[in-house]
Amino acid sequence: MLRKKIIATILLLTSLASVFSVYAEPAATGAGMAETARSYVLMEASSGKILLEKNMDDEVPPASITKVMTLLLIHEAVAAGKINWDDPVTVSSHAAGMGGSQIFMEEGEQQPVRDLVKAICIASANDAAVAMAEYIGGSESQFVDMMNARAKELGMEHTTFKNACGLHVDGHVSSAHDVALMSRELISKFPEISKTLTTWMDTITHHTRKGDTEFGLTNTNKMIKWYNGLTGLKTGYTPQAKHCVSATANRDDMNLIAVVMGSQDGKIRFREAAQLLDFGFANYKVKKGPEVGEVLGSMKVKKGDMKAVEFTIENSMAFVVPKDRTEKEFSYEIKYDDENVIAPVYKNQKLGTIVYSLDGEVVGEAPLVAAFDVGKAKFNDMLPYMAMRYFRLS
Question: Which annotated residues bind substrate (predicted)?
Answer without folding.
Answer: 234
